[in-house]
Amino acid sequence: MARSSWCVSIIGPTCIGELVGGWTGTGDVLELACGPGTWTGQLLAHAQHVTAVDASPEMLAIASTRFDDERVRFVQADVFGWKPDRRYDVVFFGFWLSHVPPERFESFWSLVADCLKPAGRVFFADDNHRASEELTEGESSSVIRRTLNNGTHYRVVKVPLRPADLEQRLARLGWDVTGTPTSGPFFWGAGSLDRP
C-alpha cells in the first residue's frame, strides 16, 4: 500500500472529504509541514486552492513533482517563523503536531489561529506511538532516537499526544477541537477557534 493510501486509511477516506466538503471545492486550504505531499492530493480533491508549506527544499521538490496543478502553491518556510499572506478556510497538518516541541505548542496554535478566516476550521491527523527502543532519553522525554532504514540515527521531537488531553489543552487556549481515536495509536482532530 502506498504511503498516501496508508495515511488516508488511518483516518478514513471520508474524513478528508468532510474537511473541506462543506465548501464543495471552493475552500482555500493551508497545509502546514506538507513533507513530500502525502496529503496534498487528498486536499486538492476537495479544495479550490492549497498552499503547502514545508521547511525542507528536498521535501518540496518531491511534492512539487507529484502535482501539476495550478491550484497548489508550495512555500519553503520554517513553520515556526512563517507568517501567512492571507487567511484560509481550513488549516491542515498530517503527522506534524506530535513533532511540535512542547515549548512551542502555544505559539504554533497562535499561528494556526492567525491563518484561519473567522469561520475557519482546523483538521489534523497524528499518532502517539513511540517505540521502546526510541526512548533513549527516557519515557518522559519528548525527544526520541529515530533510526532510518539505512541505519542513520537522528534525535527528533515526538510528543506522545492523547486526544482527550489534547482537547483539554486546546480548550484552555480558546479552541473547540474534538480528537477522535481510530486504530492503534492513530487519531484525527477537527475543530475551530471558540470565538465569542
UniProtKB/TrEMBL annotation:
Superkingdom of source: Bacteria
Classification via CDD domains: AdoMet_MTases
GO molecular function terms listed in the Swiss-Prot or TrEMBL record: 2-methoxy-6-polyprenyl-1,4-benzoquinol methyltransferase activity; demethylmenaquinone methyltransferase activity
Residue stretches making up the Methyltransferase domain: 29-120
EC assignment: 2.1.1.163, 2.1.1.201
Keywords, sorted A to Z: Methyltransferase, Transferase
Catalytic class of the enzyme: transferase
Any GO BP annotation: methylation
PANTHER family to which the protein is assigned, alphabetical: TRANS-ACONITATE 2-METHYLTRANSFERASE-RELATED
Name this protein carries in UniProt: Demethylmenaquinone methyltransferase/2-methoxy-6-polyprenyl-1,4-benzoquinol methylase
Organism: Haloactinomyces albus
Lineage: Bacteria, Bacillati, Actinomycetota, Actinomycetes, Actinopolysporales
